[in-house]
Fold each of these.
Amino acid sequence: MGSQSFNPQKFETKIGETVVWANTDMRRHSVTAYENAIPKNAEYFASGGFESEQAARDAWRKGHGTVDPKTTFKHTFEIPGTYSYFCVPHEMGGMTGRIIVKE
Ligand SMILES: [Cu+2]
Protein backbone atom coordinates (compact mmCIF):
# COMPACT_ATOMS: atom_id res chain seq x y z
CA MET A 1 0.00 0.00 0.00
CA GLY A 2 1.28 3.39 -1.01
CA SER A 3 -0.17 6.78 -0.20
CA GLN A 4 -2.83 6.55 -2.87
CA SER A 5 -2.45 3.10 -4.41
CA PHE A 6 -2.15 -0.64 -4.04
CA ASN A 7 1.07 -1.97 -5.50
CA PRO A 8 0.74 -3.95 -7.60
CA GLN A 9 -2.72 -2.85 -8.58
CA LYS A 10 -3.47 -6.23 -10.09
CA PHE A 11 -2.21 -9.38 -8.43
CA GLU A 12 -2.57 -12.99 -9.47
CA THR A 13 -2.72 -15.90 -7.05
CA LYS A 14 -4.02 -19.46 -6.77
CA ILE A 15 -6.84 -21.12 -4.87
CA GLY A 16 -5.92 -21.66 -1.24
CA GLU A 17 -3.19 -19.04 -1.24
CA THR A 18 -3.13 -16.26 1.33
CA VAL A 19 -2.56 -12.74 0.08
CA VAL A 20 -0.94 -10.31 2.51
CA TRP A 21 -1.27 -6.56 2.15
CA ALA A 22 1.37 -4.53 3.94
CA ASN A 23 0.86 -0.89 4.75
CA THR A 24 4.24 0.65 4.07
CA ASP A 25 2.76 4.14 3.99
CA MET A 26 2.48 6.60 6.87
CA ARG A 27 -1.28 6.84 6.65
CA ARG A 28 -4.11 4.52 7.53
CA HIS A 29 -5.71 2.57 4.71
CA SER A 30 -8.23 -0.21 4.33
CA VAL A 31 -8.63 -3.31 2.18
CA THR A 32 -12.33 -3.49 1.40
CA ALA A 33 -13.91 -5.76 -1.20
CA TYR A 34 -16.57 -4.50 -3.56
CA GLU A 35 -19.47 -6.72 -2.62
CA ASN A 36 -20.81 -6.92 -6.18
CA ALA A 37 -17.39 -7.43 -7.77
CA ILE A 38 -16.25 -10.70 -6.25
CA PRO A 39 -17.16 -14.20 -7.49
CA LYS A 40 -20.49 -15.69 -6.52
CA ASN A 41 -20.21 -17.83 -3.38
CA ALA A 42 -16.96 -16.13 -2.45
CA GLU A 43 -16.54 -15.04 1.11
CA TYR A 44 -16.76 -11.27 1.55
CA PHE A 45 -13.57 -9.75 2.95
CA ALA A 46 -12.60 -6.42 4.43
CA SER A 47 -10.02 -5.28 6.94
CA GLY A 48 -11.84 -5.22 10.26
CA GLY A 49 -13.66 -8.41 9.35
CA PHE A 50 -16.92 -6.82 8.26
CA GLU A 51 -19.63 -8.89 6.64
CA SER A 52 -20.60 -6.31 4.05
CA GLU A 53 -19.24 -3.38 2.12
CA GLN A 54 -21.74 -1.04 3.74
CA ALA A 55 -20.72 -2.16 7.21
CA ALA A 56 -17.09 -1.51 6.33
CA ARG A 57 -17.87 1.95 4.95
CA ASP A 58 -19.94 2.88 8.02
CA ALA A 59 -17.32 1.57 10.43
CA TRP A 60 -14.54 3.61 8.83
CA ARG A 61 -16.20 6.81 10.01
CA LYS A 62 -15.86 5.52 13.56
CA GLY A 63 -12.24 4.60 13.02
CA HIS A 64 -12.69 0.84 12.53
CA GLY A 65 -11.35 -1.44 9.83
CA THR A 66 -8.09 0.38 9.35
CA VAL A 67 -4.83 -1.17 8.26
CA ASP A 68 -2.48 1.00 10.24
CA PRO A 69 1.04 1.93 9.12
CA LYS A 70 3.48 -0.97 9.51
CA THR A 71 0.70 -3.51 9.87
CA THR A 72 -0.74 -6.08 7.50
CA PHE A 73 -4.05 -7.54 6.46
CA LYS A 74 -4.40 -10.98 4.94
CA HIS A 75 -7.06 -13.03 3.26
CA THR A 76 -7.12 -16.57 1.91
CA PHE A 77 -8.87 -17.04 -1.41
CA GLU A 78 -10.84 -20.27 -1.87
CA ILE A 79 -12.95 -19.47 -4.93
CA PRO A 80 -11.45 -18.74 -8.37
CA GLY A 81 -12.25 -15.51 -10.16
CA THR A 82 -11.67 -11.78 -10.02
CA TYR A 83 -12.01 -9.79 -6.81
CA SER A 84 -12.12 -6.01 -6.92
CA TYR A 85 -11.44 -4.05 -3.78
CA PHE A 86 -10.68 -0.53 -2.62
CA CYS A 87 -9.43 1.62 0.24
CA VAL A 88 -12.32 3.41 1.92
CA PRO A 89 -10.67 6.83 2.47
CA HIS A 90 -8.81 6.89 -0.85
CA GLU A 91 -11.33 5.29 -3.18
CA MET A 92 -11.98 8.64 -4.84
CA GLY A 93 -8.26 9.06 -5.36
CA GLY A 94 -8.22 5.84 -7.32
CA MET A 95 -6.94 3.51 -4.62
CA THR A 96 -8.45 0.30 -5.92
CA GLY A 97 -7.06 -3.09 -6.79
CA ARG A 98 -7.82 -6.49 -8.20
CA ILE A 99 -6.94 -10.00 -7.16
CA ILE A 100 -7.18 -12.71 -9.79
CA VAL A 101 -7.50 -16.19 -8.29
CA LYS A 102 -6.65 -19.05 -10.66
CA GLU A 103 -7.52 -22.71 -10.28
CU1 LIG B 1 -5.85 4.33 1.29
Amino acid sequence: MMPEIAPDQMIEQLRWRYAVKRFDATRKIDEETWSALEQSLILTPSSYGLQPWKFIVITDQELKDQLPAISWNQKQPQDCSHMVILAGRKVVDTAYIDRYMKSVVVTRQLAADAMDGYRNTLVRIVEQIPNHLDWNARQVYIALGQLMVAAAMLGVDTCPMEGIDTAAYDKILGLEDDVFTSVVGCAVGYRHPDDLQASAAKVRFDRKELVEYR
Ligand SMILES: Cc1cc2nc3c(=O)[nH]c(=O)nc-3n(C[C@H](O)[C@H](O)[C@H](O)COP(=O)(O)O)c2cc1C
Protein backbone atom coordinates (compact mmCIF):
# COMPACT_ATOMS: atom_id res chain seq x y z
CA MET A 1 0.00 0.00 0.00
CA MET A 2 1.23 3.47 -0.84
CA PRO A 3 1.89 5.60 2.22
CA GLU A 4 -0.52 8.52 2.52
CA ILE A 5 2.41 10.86 2.89
CA ALA A 6 5.94 10.27 1.62
CA PRO A 7 8.55 9.65 4.35
CA ASP A 8 10.64 12.66 3.33
CA GLN A 9 7.55 14.87 3.38
CA MET A 10 6.73 13.69 6.89
CA ILE A 11 10.22 14.48 8.09
CA GLU A 12 10.10 17.85 6.37
CA GLN A 13 6.96 18.77 8.31
CA LEU A 14 8.44 17.53 11.59
CA ARG A 15 11.54 19.60 10.97
CA TRP A 16 9.38 22.59 10.08
CA ARG A 17 7.70 22.33 13.49
CA TYR A 18 9.37 24.14 16.33
CA ALA A 19 8.18 25.45 19.66
CA VAL A 20 6.94 28.90 18.64
CA LYS A 21 8.03 31.76 20.88
CA ARG A 22 6.08 34.46 19.09
CA PHE A 23 2.73 33.94 17.40
CA ASP A 24 1.18 36.23 14.80
CA ALA A 25 -1.78 37.57 16.78
CA THR A 26 -3.52 38.68 13.56
CA ARG A 27 -3.78 35.16 12.11
CA LYS A 28 -6.54 32.80 13.21
CA ILE A 29 -7.03 29.16 12.32
CA ASP A 30 -9.99 28.64 9.98
CA GLU A 31 -12.91 26.48 11.04
CA GLU A 32 -12.17 23.50 8.81
CA THR A 33 -8.54 23.32 9.91
CA TRP A 34 -9.44 23.71 13.57
CA SER A 35 -12.11 21.05 13.28
CA ALA A 36 -9.45 18.61 11.98
CA LEU A 37 -7.14 19.49 14.86
CA GLU A 38 -9.98 19.01 17.30
CA GLN A 39 -10.41 15.52 15.83
CA SER A 40 -6.70 14.84 16.38
CA LEU A 41 -7.33 15.42 20.09
CA ILE A 42 -10.45 13.26 20.16
CA LEU A 43 -8.78 10.44 18.21
CA THR A 44 -5.82 10.22 20.61
CA PRO A 45 -5.31 6.67 21.88
CA SER A 46 -5.40 6.09 25.64
CA SER A 47 -4.79 3.20 28.01
CA TYR A 48 -7.79 0.81 27.77
CA GLY A 49 -9.45 3.50 25.64
CA LEU A 50 -10.57 5.35 28.76
CA GLN A 51 -9.98 8.89 27.42
CA PRO A 52 -9.29 10.33 30.87
CA TRP A 53 -9.17 13.92 29.68
CA LYS A 54 -10.87 17.08 28.64
CA PHE A 55 -9.52 19.66 26.22
CA ILE A 56 -10.40 23.24 26.97
CA VAL A 57 -9.94 25.52 23.99
CA ILE A 58 -9.58 29.21 24.70
CA THR A 59 -10.25 31.60 21.84
CA ASP A 60 -11.90 34.46 23.72
CA GLN A 61 -9.44 37.34 23.52
CA GLU A 62 -10.39 38.83 26.87
CA LEU A 63 -9.65 35.53 28.54
CA LYS A 64 -6.46 35.06 26.49
CA ASP A 65 -5.26 38.50 27.60
CA GLN A 66 -5.22 37.23 31.19
CA LEU A 67 -3.06 34.21 30.42
CA PRO A 68 0.53 35.55 30.23
CA ALA A 69 0.26 36.54 33.91
CA ILE A 70 -0.34 32.88 34.82
CA SER A 71 2.10 31.49 32.21
CA TRP A 72 5.45 32.75 33.48
CA ASN A 73 4.80 35.90 31.42
CA GLN A 74 4.97 33.96 28.20
CA LYS A 75 2.92 35.62 25.45
CA GLN A 76 2.07 32.57 23.34
CA PRO A 77 -1.28 31.90 25.11
CA GLN A 78 -2.34 35.49 24.38
CA ASP A 79 -1.16 35.78 20.77
CA CYS A 80 -1.95 32.32 19.43
CA SER A 81 -5.23 31.51 17.70
CA HIS A 82 -6.40 28.63 19.93
CA MET A 83 -4.94 28.05 23.38
CA VAL A 84 -5.58 24.46 24.40
CA ILE A 85 -5.48 23.41 28.02
CA LEU A 86 -5.17 19.66 28.23
CA ALA A 87 -6.76 18.54 31.49
CA GLY A 88 -6.64 15.11 33.10
CA ARG A 89 -9.22 13.28 35.23
CA LYS A 90 -8.22 13.22 38.85
CA VAL A 91 -9.82 9.83 39.46
CA VAL A 92 -11.01 6.95 37.30
CA ASP A 93 -13.80 5.44 39.40
CA THR A 94 -16.14 2.53 38.73
CA ALA A 95 -18.92 4.83 37.56
CA TYR A 96 -16.59 6.25 34.92
CA ILE A 97 -15.48 2.80 33.77
CA ASP A 98 -19.15 1.81 33.49
CA ARG A 99 -19.87 4.89 31.42
CA TYR A 100 -17.03 4.01 29.08
CA MET A 101 -18.16 0.38 28.80
CA LYS A 102 -21.65 1.55 27.94
CA SER A 103 -20.25 3.66 25.11
CA VAL A 104 -18.36 0.60 23.77
CA VAL A 105 -21.56 -1.49 23.85
CA VAL A 106 -23.60 1.21 22.12
CA THR A 107 -20.97 2.17 19.52
CA ARG A 108 -20.19 -1.41 18.54
CA GLN A 109 -23.77 -2.63 18.95
CA LEU A 110 -22.83 -5.41 21.37
CA ALA A 111 -25.02 -7.40 23.70
CA ALA A 112 -25.63 -5.50 26.94
CA ASP A 113 -23.44 -7.90 28.98
CA ALA A 114 -20.72 -8.38 26.34
CA MET A 115 -18.21 -6.19 28.18
CA ASP A 116 -18.93 -7.39 31.73
CA GLY A 117 -15.83 -9.59 32.08
CA TYR A 118 -13.54 -6.93 30.69
CA ARG A 119 -15.22 -4.32 32.86
CA ASN A 120 -14.64 -6.33 36.05
CA THR A 121 -10.99 -6.92 35.17
CA LEU A 122 -10.53 -3.24 34.43
CA VAL A 123 -12.12 -2.20 37.73
CA ARG A 124 -9.59 -4.42 39.56
CA ILE A 125 -6.65 -3.11 37.53
CA VAL A 126 -7.60 0.53 37.99
CA GLU A 127 -8.09 0.06 41.74
CA GLN A 128 -4.44 -0.95 41.97
CA ILE A 129 -3.10 2.11 40.20
CA PRO A 130 -1.71 4.26 43.02
CA ASN A 131 -2.10 7.70 41.52
CA HIS A 132 -4.78 8.13 38.89
CA LEU A 133 -3.86 11.69 37.99
CA ASP A 134 -0.26 10.62 37.38
CA TRP A 135 -1.47 7.87 35.09
CA ASN A 136 -3.97 10.11 33.33
CA ALA A 137 -1.43 12.89 32.87
CA ARG A 138 0.72 10.46 30.89
CA GLN A 139 -2.24 9.85 28.60
CA VAL A 140 -2.79 13.60 28.28
CA TYR A 141 0.78 14.00 27.01
CA ILE A 142 -0.01 11.58 24.19
CA ALA A 143 -2.79 13.96 23.14
CA LEU A 144 -0.30 16.83 23.30
CA GLY A 145 2.09 14.95 21.00
CA GLN A 146 -0.66 14.00 18.59
CA LEU A 147 -1.94 17.59 18.43
CA MET A 148 1.53 18.98 17.68
CA VAL A 149 2.22 16.44 14.94
CA ALA A 150 -1.25 16.79 13.41
CA ALA A 151 -0.83 20.58 13.38
CA ALA A 152 2.59 20.32 11.75
CA MET A 153 1.14 18.12 9.00
CA LEU A 154 -1.36 20.90 8.24
CA GLY A 155 1.21 23.70 8.40
CA VAL A 156 -0.15 24.98 11.69
CA ASP A 157 2.25 26.07 14.42
CA THR A 158 2.26 25.10 18.07
CA CYS A 159 4.04 25.67 21.32
CA PRO A 160 3.74 22.96 23.97
CA MET A 161 3.62 24.69 27.34
CA GLU A 162 4.51 23.33 30.74
CA GLY A 163 5.42 26.85 31.78
CA ILE A 164 1.93 27.52 33.01
CA ASP A 165 0.59 27.81 36.55
CA THR A 166 -1.85 24.91 36.41
CA ALA A 167 -3.52 25.85 39.71
CA ALA A 168 -4.16 29.38 38.40
CA TYR A 169 -5.50 27.95 35.13
CA ASP A 170 -7.85 25.71 37.13
CA LYS A 171 -9.05 28.78 38.94
CA ILE A 172 -9.60 30.92 35.85
CA LEU A 173 -11.33 28.01 34.06
CA GLY A 174 -13.53 27.11 37.01
CA LEU A 175 -11.92 23.69 37.44
CA GLU A 176 -11.02 23.99 41.11
CA ASP A 177 -13.61 21.47 42.29
CA ASP A 178 -13.93 19.67 38.98
CA VAL A 179 -13.12 16.05 38.13
CA PHE A 180 -10.52 17.47 35.72
CA THR A 181 -7.40 19.47 36.42
CA SER A 182 -5.06 21.32 34.04
CA VAL A 183 -2.00 19.28 33.11
CA VAL A 184 -0.27 21.02 30.20
CA GLY A 185 -1.02 23.63 27.57
CA CYS A 186 -0.55 23.94 23.84
CA ALA A 187 -0.71 27.23 22.01
CA VAL A 188 -1.86 26.71 18.41
CA GLY A 189 -1.76 29.25 15.61
CA TYR A 190 0.72 30.78 13.20
CA ARG A 191 4.29 31.87 13.80
CA HIS A 192 5.10 35.59 13.64
CA PRO A 193 7.41 36.33 10.69
CA ASP A 194 9.87 37.88 13.16
CA ASP A 195 10.09 34.86 15.46
CA LEU A 196 13.84 34.27 15.35
CA GLN A 197 13.38 30.83 16.89
CA ALA A 198 12.06 29.60 13.53
CA SER A 199 15.51 29.75 11.98
CA ALA A 200 17.40 28.32 14.96
CA ALA A 201 19.03 25.01 14.11
CA LYS A 202 17.33 21.94 15.60
CA VAL A 203 19.27 20.62 18.57
CA ARG A 204 19.05 16.86 18.90
CA PHE A 205 21.55 14.27 20.09
CA ASP A 206 22.98 11.94 17.50
CA ARG A 207 20.65 9.15 16.39
CA LYS A 208 23.25 6.58 17.40
CA GLU A 209 22.93 7.79 20.95
CA LEU A 210 19.15 7.88 20.97
CA VAL A 211 18.18 4.79 19.02
CA GLU A 212 19.48 1.32 19.62
CA TYR A 213 18.80 -1.66 17.38
CA ARG A 214 19.16 -5.21 18.64
C1 LIG B 1 6.09 19.20 27.65
C2 LIG B 1 6.77 20.42 27.08
C3 LIG B 1 6.66 21.64 27.71
C4 LIG B 1 7.22 22.79 27.16
N1 LIG B 1 7.01 24.02 27.75
C5 LIG B 1 7.41 25.13 27.10
C6 LIG B 1 7.04 26.42 27.57
O1 LIG B 1 6.37 26.60 28.59
N2 LIG B 1 7.48 27.51 26.85
C7 LIG B 1 8.22 27.38 25.71
O2 LIG B 1 8.55 28.40 25.10
N3 LIG B 1 8.59 26.17 25.24
C8 LIG B 1 8.19 25.04 25.90
N4 LIG B 1 8.52 23.80 25.40
C9 LIG B 1 9.30 23.73 24.15
C10 LIG B 1 10.66 23.05 24.29
O3 LIG B 1 11.57 23.91 24.90
C11 LIG B 1 11.10 22.63 22.88
O4 LIG B 1 10.16 21.71 22.39
C12 LIG B 1 12.47 22.01 22.86
O5 LIG B 1 13.44 22.95 23.23
C13 LIG B 1 12.82 21.47 21.49
O6 LIG B 1 12.72 22.46 20.51
P1 LIG B 1 11.74 22.37 19.26
O7 LIG B 1 10.39 21.94 19.80
O8 LIG B 1 11.69 23.78 18.75
O9 LIG B 1 12.29 21.39 18.29
C14 LIG B 1 7.98 22.67 25.98
C15 LIG B 1 8.10 21.42 25.36
C16 LIG B 1 7.49 20.32 25.87
C17 LIG B 1 7.56 19.03 25.12
